[in-house]
Fold Pyruvate decarboxylase.
Amino acid sequence: MEAHVQSLPENIPLGLYLWLRIRQIGIGTVLGVPGDFNLELLDHIYNVPGLRFVGNANELNAAYAADGYGRINGTPGVFVTTHGVGELSAVNGVSGSLCERVKVIHVVGQTPRPLQQAKAMIHHSIGDQPDHQLYNKVSKPIRLTAAELWDVENAPAEIDRVIRECVISCGPVYIFMPIDMSSEPVPSSLLSTPIDFSPPIDSDAQNRAVEAIVGALREARSPCLFVDALVQRYDAREDCAALAKRLRVPVYSTHMGKATVDETEEFYAGIYHGQVDDKAICEGIESSDCVLVLGSVNADTNSGGFTRKIRKDAEVQINPNNVVVKGERYDGIAIKQVLSLLEDALQGVEVARVKPPQVLPKPLPVDHAAKNLTQSWIWSRIAAFLKPHDVVMAETGTTLFGLTPERMPSDVRFVSQAYYGSIGYIFAASLGIELSLEDSHHEKGTPRGRTVCVTGDGSMALTIQEVGTMISQGLKPVVVVLNNKGYTVERVIHGALQPYNTTPKTNYSHLLPLFAHPQADQCFHKAVTKEEFVKVFEKAELADPQVTHLVELVLDAMDSPWRLTKQLAMRGEAGVKYLTDVGFIGPGKVGIGG
Amino acid sequence: MEAHVQSLPENIPLGLYLWLRIRQIGIGTVLGVPGDFNLELLDHIYNVPGLRFVGNANELNAAYAADGYGRINGTPGVFVTTHGVGELSAVNGVSGSLCERVKVIHVVGQTPRPLQQAKAMIHHSIGDQPDHQLYNKVSKPIRLTAAELWDVENAPAEIDRVIRECVISCGPVYIFMPIDMSSEPVPSSLLSTPIDFSPPIDSDAQNRAVEAIVGALREARSPCLFVDALVQRYDAREDCAALAKRLRVPVYSTHMGKATVDETEEFYAGIYHGQVDDKAICEGIESSDCVLVLGSVNADTNSGGFTRKIRKDAEVQINPNNVVVKGERYDGIAIKQVLSLLEDALQGVEVARVKPPQVLPKPLPVDHAAKNLTQSWIWSRIAAFLKPHDVVMAETGTTLFGLTPERMPSDVRFVSQAYYGSIGYIFAASLGIELSLEDSHHEKGTPRGRTVCVTGDGSMALTIQEVGTMISQGLKPVVVVLNNKGYTVERVIHGALQPYNTTPKTNYSHLLPLFAHPQADQCFHKAVTKEEFVKVFEKAELADPQVTHLVELVLDAMDSPWRLTKQLAMRGEAGVKYLTDVGFIGPGKVGIGG
């Protein structure tokens, strides 16, 4: 890359500057939808070695795919849309990236500056004297920051600033580029200074925080780790894994933190989803006198409807930018550095080790003898299908609740959107995951695992056209769709028999051929019975897929995993404590955890 | 309806109140996507006689479909989404409704009030202490007004206020309902007072405006009408048609005003799209000494890239809420009333009548001998397929430019989104058109014409899953898709050979079977050659469709209608005058009219 920069002319177009910066930080793919106010900007992508443009079927799908891309490699997902009609279609996807702290850069091609100044009634605008920056205001509440490019003098610095903000604060940023600016010249020498990604740190506070945590661990009789989502989001996955191996105390996880730590290790205890999960797990973590809570997201769907009961006096919080030990708060830290320093500091330190709780095998489910597929049967088998280096993706719905308790092989990554919970997300995001796996395999030689995307028919319908992009790009996800004729997660929340929870009938055998899949028939697999399921998942082409595969699992409309049913049942019991505390009366009325 | 109100109990749930109000104003269908913060609200729909819920595949499609519904009957389109993830996905659709002044009511089911007050981390929220009203701020710039329901005492009045605003100001409004409020009791007697839809009028100013217009017409030697979009949006279509018949002066139309006036009348002159259209048309309207410009939208895509040249001293503007005659402005008027009063006032008034310009037949196109389909050949044949009472829908792209100059039969309605221009719109909107035609046929006995939706493969991909709703609802649109392997409108603007303008290959024969169309094979029709085209459009089942039909027309990737090519070519000629005036240098850089 450096060599390439030196061969550039003295001045380069701003559009090219942007893409070279994007490439410099290790990004290999730009997603998005072309539109007449971004075409010239897209042209410059083709002049950047190692960078490709992959067009999406629509902008929401692009935002989801960029979010998926941003979850895996530590590099942001990037996507491009056009003025108004494009950028607004993506707002919900970007909002999800803010909620779940995913690094995403949304580049918007705007109308040219003179037309903005003239308030010209260019298509995609609103009104007689349109304010072309109106849409910029729409996305303001759901982004970290934006580069509102206007003056070419400071445009490169603004681009650098928001890329930095995206990476160090983990969240979505915008770059608004009036399209006439994409050809404005900027000095290529600016590229020789890399963007500074060092987080703002108070080293002294950080060291004191680490000391305090070590002190707490020394004193503890039954310490444990409780790993949540923000560990991986803030790039501390490996540091966390190393800390876990150093400590070897029981490690609990959340829905959103799942598979951050190797689940095959004997110290891995399981998912603590408040009072929903196994009693032994609850007793284990709730009796601990020192719980290191890492990167916590205490949302209803990540906490069993706010039913976590960790002892207040036992809690040591390690958050992305602060640490709290016994009521003492240390600001100006970075979670990645703290975990790394902590692992070092613990060398030679004696820490008490209790055994992880032993979860007894579940009794046979009442429907265990069924010949057809049931939710009580499929999840452990889907987990057994996984291999190291796979990325498994669980849609918010029965999948999230069904798959999380199952143990994953080493080096598997688990992707869900449990807090934001926008259905349709997982399927479009799997495109970004695939591209990211491909890019990092190509670039860093990391193993090219499979993307195993598990979704439902109701959810998949929202973003189903993105399969066309997967096929045309030669990607090879294994997409598993639970066909239960609609929104089963909603049926168990409310309106079990209401027609609104039934979606149009879908004959999935036609999905791959619709987008001209070259081996459509061989790559569509359907199972109604357990026997069929076993045969499907034994196929060699699913073990090592070379093209997009689609597996349809037919399930009963009212069948749901026991954990979902239990969380919902708890709305009338323990789970309402929180609601009562906040003054909410009438627990049956709110879909906590739905 | 009144009888029904009297049979209601003294108090009814607020949710029911909302739907009864919606029903009272003639709406028969509520669109939307169920989500756990709107389910209880949806339940009440089933208790309103004559009101149905039709679920969409996703929320953007719902917004588009509601916009389509709102364009036909004079009644607003209504759709329901859920907190955050649902409402944000719809933002672009709503923004289009504001741009194009379409009546839409967007009902958002929010989290319960106590959870909002507690800033609880309920799924779909953002942050540790989430502000549940964050999303409300997102849509603020792209709506007319919102009912932010919180206090049940004023909730019915707030609902009534925004419904009134939607109807009289023509645009999208929001109703935010915390889901716990849907069951709160309100007096049913409130329903006995209908919502007041009378616009705020200054009768004196209105009368003076009409007098001034009559005066201008009396003096004119070559008066004409120039009919634009806001006539139909503000429910003045019939008044305009009556005025045209009274005056019998030449009537010109815009893209967006197309088919407001009967195009079979001898006084109908054609489309005036600035300097793009026929010279005779330009000379006709540009030489007129009195042009009544009705409901104008002077956007680039509606004015040939700002190349209208109507004489300033000849222009009489009749806008939705004001009239301007010879520089004198009259405020406080309503276009519908002005047109109606004008028609009355002209009784017995002598008005000069010139003949409409005679447009000479076009020379044979260079590709006239082609056996395969060409853009120079198809448009007049698609127009010839139309029948009275059809609604024909043209996607922004080659279709809009190809179909607008063709004359329509009487009583045909023409729907496009020429100013906002969000691709994917037309196909999802056709669902709303179908439902609206069905509702008004059922309710008022209006003829049940066909919905003929003409789109392209690039555009249709964005919203393609909505065909599932059409099929499952037993609707019967004729969907015509031009398959030219991507974004042809963009190819002619910029990047003809760039890969970003090519979309994934689509084999449309699998689309109807994917969503379990009962007669999929018979209802899919494909034409590559002109001969095949003729055979397809002669089929009896397309003349009187009973189910959803899909027609694929295969076209060359670079083939486009002459009017589009001409408008784009003009970017380097007459069309740049405007751009030069506003100081824009480098005309090749902006896709005016793309």
Q: What stands out?
A: Chain A touches chain B through 108 residues (CB under 8 Å). Chain A has a mean pLDDT of 94. The CA atoms of residues 316 and 325 of chain A lie 5 Å apart. The longest strand of chain A covers residues 104-110.
